[in-house]
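Progress note, project year one: complex with NAP.
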Amino acid sequence: MLQDPAKAAVVASCAAVGAYNLLKTTAGLLGSFNRHFLRGTYDMYARYGDAEKKSYSVVTGGSDGIGLELCMQTAAMGFNICIIGRNEEKMLRALKKIKDSYPKVETMHIVFDFNKYFTIDDYDSIIAKALKDIDIAMLFLNAGWAQAGSFAKISQEATEQ
Ligand SMILES: NC(=O)c1ccc[n+]([C@@H]2O[C@H](COP(=O)([O-])OP(=O)(O)OC[C@H]3O[C@@H](n4cnc5c(N)ncnc54)[C@H](OP(=O)(O)O)[C@@H]3O)[C@@H](O)[C@H]2O)c1
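Model obtained:
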Protein backbone atom coordinates (compact mmCIF):
# COMPACT_ATOMS: atom_id res chain seq x y z
CA MET A 1 0.00 0.00 0.00
CA LEU A 2 1.24 3.46 -0.87
CA GLN A 3 1.01 5.75 2.12
CA ASP A 4 1.97 8.94 0.30
CA PRO A 5 -1.19 10.27 -1.46
CA ALA A 6 0.92 12.06 -4.14
CA LYS A 7 2.71 8.80 -5.05
CA ALA A 8 -0.58 6.92 -5.00
CA ALA A 9 -2.05 9.48 -7.42
CA VAL A 10 0.92 9.11 -9.80
CA VAL A 11 0.68 5.31 -9.71
CA ALA A 12 -3.08 5.45 -10.29
CA SER A 13 -2.61 7.81 -13.27
CA CYS A 14 0.06 5.54 -14.78
CA ALA A 15 -2.20 2.52 -14.28
CA ALA A 16 -5.07 4.36 -16.00
CA VAL A 17 -2.89 5.32 -18.99
CA GLY A 18 -1.54 1.76 -19.18
CA ALA A 19 -5.04 0.29 -19.04
CA TYR A 20 -6.22 2.72 -21.74
CA ASN A 21 -3.31 1.77 -24.04
CA LEU A 22 -3.84 -1.93 -23.40
CA LEU A 23 -7.53 -1.59 -24.27
CA LYS A 24 -6.73 0.43 -27.38
CA THR A 25 -4.16 -2.12 -28.60
CA THR A 26 -6.50 -5.03 -27.84
CA ALA A 27 -9.36 -3.34 -29.72
CA GLY A 28 -7.04 -2.71 -32.71
CA LEU A 29 -5.91 -6.34 -32.76
CA LEU A 30 -9.49 -7.63 -32.49
CA GLY A 31 -10.60 -5.26 -35.28
CA SER A 32 -7.76 -6.43 -37.49
CA PHE A 33 -8.55 -10.08 -36.76
CA ASN A 34 -12.19 -9.44 -37.63
CA ARG A 35 -11.32 -7.67 -40.91
CA HIS A 36 -8.84 -10.30 -42.08
CA PHE A 37 -10.28 -13.58 -40.79
CA LEU A 38 -13.92 -13.27 -39.74
CA ARG A 39 -15.75 -10.67 -41.79
CA GLY A 40 -14.99 -12.12 -45.24
CA THR A 41 -15.11 -10.08 -48.44
CA TYR A 42 -18.05 -8.28 -49.96
CA ASP A 43 -19.60 -9.99 -52.95
CA MET A 44 -19.28 -6.99 -55.25
CA TYR A 45 -20.94 -8.75 -58.15
CA ALA A 46 -23.99 -9.60 -56.03
CA ARG A 47 -24.11 -6.00 -54.89
CA TYR A 48 -23.58 -4.15 -58.17
CA GLY A 49 -23.81 -6.66 -60.99
CA ASP A 50 -26.81 -8.13 -62.74
CA ALA A 51 -26.81 -11.93 -62.74
CA GLU A 52 -28.73 -12.15 -66.04
CA LYS A 53 -27.04 -9.36 -67.97
CA LYS A 54 -23.38 -10.27 -67.32
CA SER A 55 -22.38 -6.85 -66.09
CA TYR A 56 -19.25 -5.04 -67.11
CA SER A 57 -16.56 -3.11 -65.37
CA VAL A 58 -15.49 -0.32 -67.73
CA VAL A 59 -12.01 1.09 -67.17
CA THR A 60 -10.54 4.02 -69.07
CA GLY A 61 -6.77 3.57 -69.34
CA GLY A 62 -7.15 -0.07 -68.32
CA SER A 63 -4.19 -1.27 -70.34
CA ASP A 64 -1.56 -0.33 -67.79
CA GLY A 65 -0.78 0.54 -64.17
CA ILE A 66 -3.65 1.21 -61.80
CA GLY A 67 -6.23 0.75 -64.56
CA LEU A 68 -4.97 -2.72 -65.45
CA GLU A 69 -5.00 -3.69 -61.78
CA LEU A 70 -8.61 -2.42 -61.53
CA CYS A 71 -9.43 -4.67 -64.49
CA MET A 72 -7.76 -7.68 -62.86
CA GLN A 73 -9.44 -7.07 -59.51
CA THR A 74 -12.92 -6.58 -60.94
CA ALA A 75 -12.46 -9.55 -63.32
CA ALA A 76 -11.64 -11.63 -60.23
CA MET A 77 -14.99 -10.47 -58.77
CA GLY A 78 -16.78 -11.83 -61.83
CA PHE A 79 -17.32 -8.69 -63.90
CA ASN A 80 -16.75 -8.67 -67.64
CA ILE A 81 -14.15 -6.15 -68.67
CA CYS A 82 -14.15 -3.29 -71.14
CA ILE A 83 -11.03 -1.19 -71.58
CA ILE A 84 -11.16 2.24 -73.18
CA GLY A 85 -7.75 3.46 -74.35
CA ARG A 86 -5.75 4.80 -77.23
CA ASN A 87 -3.32 1.98 -77.99
CA GLU A 88 -5.20 -1.01 -79.39
CA GLU A 89 -2.24 -3.41 -79.31
CA LYS A 90 -1.61 -2.63 -75.65
CA MET A 91 -5.30 -3.06 -74.80
CA LEU A 92 -5.38 -6.46 -76.54
CA ARG A 93 -2.29 -7.56 -74.60
CA ALA A 94 -3.93 -6.49 -71.33
CA LEU A 95 -7.20 -8.22 -72.21
CA LYS A 96 -5.29 -11.43 -73.03
CA LYS A 97 -3.64 -11.27 -69.61
CA ILE A 98 -7.08 -10.88 -68.01
CA LYS A 99 -8.55 -13.74 -70.10
CA ASP A 100 -5.59 -16.00 -69.24
CA SER A 101 -6.27 -15.42 -65.54
CA TYR A 102 -10.07 -15.43 -65.72
CA PRO A 103 -11.16 -17.44 -68.80
CA LYS A 104 -14.89 -17.04 -68.12
CA VAL A 105 -14.71 -13.26 -68.25
CA GLU A 106 -15.82 -11.62 -71.48
CA THR A 107 -13.80 -8.70 -72.72
CA MET A 108 -14.13 -5.80 -75.12
CA HIS A 109 -12.19 -2.66 -75.90
CA ILE A 110 -12.82 0.77 -77.40
CA VAL A 111 -10.10 2.77 -79.10
CA PHE A 112 -10.42 6.34 -77.87
CA ASP A 113 -7.74 8.94 -77.28
CA PHE A 114 -8.91 11.36 -74.59
CA ASN A 115 -6.40 13.91 -75.85
CA LYS A 116 -7.93 13.95 -79.30
CA TYR A 117 -11.61 13.54 -78.58
CA PHE A 118 -13.41 15.47 -75.89
CA THR A 119 -16.75 16.74 -77.16
CA ILE A 120 -20.10 15.25 -76.19
CA ASP A 121 -20.52 14.26 -79.84
CA ASP A 122 -17.21 12.33 -79.76
CA TYR A 123 -18.24 10.52 -76.59
CA ASP A 124 -21.67 9.82 -78.02
CA SER A 125 -20.60 8.59 -81.43
CA ILE A 126 -17.72 6.40 -80.24
CA ILE A 127 -18.05 5.41 -76.58
CA ALA A 128 -21.80 5.51 -75.93
CA LYS A 129 -22.44 3.77 -79.24
CA ALA A 130 -20.05 0.93 -78.41
CA LEU A 131 -21.44 0.54 -74.89
CA LYS A 132 -25.13 0.81 -75.66
CA ASP A 133 -25.89 -2.91 -75.36
CA ILE A 134 -23.95 -3.78 -72.24
CA ASP A 135 -24.83 -3.42 -68.57
CA ILE A 136 -22.24 -1.23 -66.87
CA ALA A 137 -21.96 -2.00 -63.18
CA MET A 138 -18.68 -0.23 -62.55
CA LEU A 139 -17.02 2.68 -64.30
CA PHE A 140 -13.46 3.78 -63.51
CA LEU A 141 -12.35 7.05 -65.08
CA ASN A 142 -8.66 6.40 -64.69
CA ALA A 143 -7.01 7.29 -68.02
CA GLY A 144 -4.39 9.89 -67.53
CA TRP A 145 -0.85 10.62 -66.77
CA ALA A 146 0.93 11.71 -63.64
CA GLN A 147 4.36 13.00 -62.79
CA ALA A 148 5.52 12.78 -59.22
CA GLY A 149 7.59 15.51 -57.64
CA SER A 150 7.59 19.23 -57.20
CA PHE A 151 5.20 21.14 -59.48
CA ALA A 152 7.82 23.83 -59.98
CA LYS A 153 10.20 21.26 -61.48
CA ILE A 154 7.77 19.91 -64.07
CA SER A 155 8.88 20.90 -67.55
CA GLN A 156 6.70 22.87 -69.96
CA GLU A 157 6.71 19.85 -72.29
CA ALA A 158 5.50 17.51 -69.52
CA THR A 159 2.75 19.97 -68.54
CA GLU A 160 1.51 20.15 -72.10
CA GLN A 161 1.55 16.36 -72.42
N1 LIG B 1 0.71 6.22 -60.10
C1 LIG B 1 0.51 7.18 -59.21
O1 LIG B 1 1.26 7.33 -58.22
C2 LIG B 1 -0.67 8.11 -59.32
C3 LIG B 1 -0.92 9.01 -58.29
C4 LIG B 1 -2.03 9.86 -58.36
C5 LIG B 1 -2.86 9.79 -59.46
N2 LIG B 1 -2.60 8.92 -60.45
C6 LIG B 1 -3.52 8.90 -61.60
O2 LIG B 1 -4.02 7.58 -61.78
C7 LIG B 1 -4.20 7.34 -63.17
C8 LIG B 1 -3.40 6.10 -63.62
O3 LIG B 1 -2.04 6.22 -63.23
P1 LIG B 1 -1.01 5.07 -63.59
O4 LIG B 1 0.19 5.32 -62.77
O5 LIG B 1 -1.69 3.74 -63.51
O6 LIG B 1 -0.68 5.45 -65.12
P2 LIG B 1 -0.11 4.54 -66.30
O7 LIG B 1 0.53 3.30 -65.79
O8 LIG B 1 0.69 5.45 -67.17
O9 LIG B 1 -1.42 4.12 -67.09
C9 LIG B 1 -2.22 5.10 -67.66
C10 LIG B 1 -3.23 4.45 -68.57
O10 LIG B 1 -4.02 5.50 -69.14
C11 LIG B 1 -3.93 5.40 -70.57
N3 LIG B 1 -3.97 6.72 -71.16
C12 LIG B 1 -3.13 7.75 -70.92
N4 LIG B 1 -3.47 8.81 -71.67
C13 LIG B 1 -4.53 8.44 -72.41
C14 LIG B 1 -5.32 9.08 -73.40
N5 LIG B 1 -5.08 10.32 -73.78
N6 LIG B 1 -6.34 8.42 -73.96
C15 LIG B 1 -6.59 7.15 -73.61
N7 LIG B 1 -5.89 6.47 -72.69
C16 LIG B 1 -4.86 7.10 -72.10
C17 LIG B 1 -2.59 4.72 -70.83
O11 LIG B 1 -2.58 4.17 -72.11
P3 LIG B 1 -1.24 4.25 -73.02
O12 LIG B 1 -0.23 3.39 -72.33
O13 LIG B 1 -1.66 3.79 -74.35
O14 LIG B 1 -0.79 5.69 -73.00
C18 LIG B 1 -2.58 3.69 -69.71
O15 LIG B 1 -3.37 2.57 -70.03
C19 LIG B 1 -3.73 8.60 -63.91
O16 LIG B 1 -4.87 9.37 -64.19
C20 LIG B 1 -2.84 9.27 -62.90
O17 LIG B 1 -2.85 10.66 -63.12
C21 LIG B 1 -1.54 8.08 -60.40
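The two ends are 74 Å apart (CA to CA).
The longest helix spans residues 5-38.
No further modelling is planned for this target in the current period.
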